[in-house]
């Protein structure tokens, strides 16, 4: 048997591949909407994905399972809000907006390190 992994990350980050790691080992690089099957060497394996310094938490999957890699919408929201504050601070005389923007960008990078992608059980239908 095998575990089927589908990348469904949408428009954000679709220009570059994500690294698929199984049990800590790089298996392949997935393009957007690509489907890949990993041969199960045991009943349970740990799956994780990365793209640059953004990643996902490690998830345990079992033989025969189909999972999807999706973009975490909270991470995307945090990303866009930080840039809205950055542009607002750049075009106004409010330096607090720039400070807030930089803090939000740091939060986005820290959160995105393990929360940019989510690995979920495939939805039926």
Strand and helix order:
EEEEEEEEHHE
> What structural category do the secondary elements indicate?
alpha+beta
Percent range for β-strand residues = 35-45%
Q: What are the segments in which pLDDT stays under 50 over at least 5 consecutive residues?
A: none
CATH topology: Immunoglobulin-like
CATH homology superfamily name: Carboxypeptidase-like, regulatory domain
How many DSSP helices? 2
Question: Outline, from the CA principal axes?
Answer: elongated
Q: Give the distance, in angstroms, between the N- and C-terminal Cα atoms.
A: 23 Å
**CATH classification class:** Mainly Beta
Oligomer: single chain
Largest sheet: 5 strands, antiparallel
Radius of gyration: 17 Å
In round numbers, the mean pLDDT is 87
How many domains in all? 1
What is the strand tally? 9
Helix content: 25-40%
- CATH hierarchy: architecture: Sandwich
